[in-house]
Amino acid sequence: MSTSSSVASEPAIQVRDLEKSYKQLTVLRGVDLEVAHGSIFALLGSNGAGKTTIVKILATLLKADSGTARVNGFDVATQAAKVRESISLTGQFAAVDDILTGRENLVLVARLRHLPGPGAIADDLLRRFSLVEAGGRRVATYSGGMRRRLDIAMSLIGAPPVIFLDEPTAGLDPEARIEVWQTVKELAAGGTTVLLTTQYLEEAEQLADRIGILHEGRIIVDGTLGELKQLLPPAKVEYVEKQPTLEDVFLALVGARTEQTKS
């Protein structure tokens, strides 16, 4: 079997028994997850649950204490350079240069990655992300949603097969959030694998093929939205039937785990 076919046969992201502590603080306590190629996986959890720590380990920015993680077929500990060639990371704050125009930001990244035709790459991404009219304007004039779209466009230069979005809509207004959601959906439709961390339950509902809930250092459930909703009792029929929302599932599961810990 060739290397490319073997890579394609395994999950785009595969994590086994991942653990990480900072001195006396244990953040990850044995995390397991798999993300299929071309899918959107939402990692859902409260502040401090360890979502960003997982992303940093997968992006080779942080070393795990134990466990294994593979991205696009490559081990994050022993094949870090190959992993970095396969991914792009977009953090909670847009990493764009306000002084440059949108097009200049894109051209700069393409040149830094030594890609041929940086101008053509920039123009193509401006079209894909509906930023053509704004491409010649300084980014300082952009709205929050436009800045985030540009940030994601910059992260796609070089066509990485896997992209990590760490709280991509933090601080955005509802309209801008919807713009980013549409962008993420289009990425997955084009074959890009997306691992998304978020605190917003509606975001996970709107975007994810599968959802993992991270609580106290472990993923306590992992499934489709429909599978997660089935974890709660059936809907009661009074005058209308109310199906459980993802928020109901999240609060029930996390609350139950918290009560067990206290007892």
Please give a structural write-up.
The chain has helices spanning about 5-10, 50-60, 80-85, 100-110, 120-130, 145-155, 175-190, 200-205, 225-230, 245-260, and strands spanning about 15-20, 25-35, 40-45, 65-70, 75, 85-90, 160-165, 195-200, 210-215, 220-225. With about 260 residues, the chain is an alpha/beta fold. It has one domain: P-loop containing nucleotide triphosphate hydrolases (Rossmann fold), CATH 3.40.50.300. The protein is globular and about 55 Å long.
List the helices and strands and how they pair.
Blueprint (H helix, E strand, L loop, with lengths): L2 H7 L3 E10 L2 E11 L4 E5 L6 H8 L7 E6 L2 E2 L4 H7 E4 L11 H11 L5 H11 L15 H12 L6 E5 L7 H16 L3 E6 L2 H7 L2 E6 L2 E6 L1 H5 L16 H17 L1
Parallel strand pairs: 3-8, 3-9, 6-7, 7-8
Antiparallel strand pairs: 1-2, 1-4, 4-5, 9-10
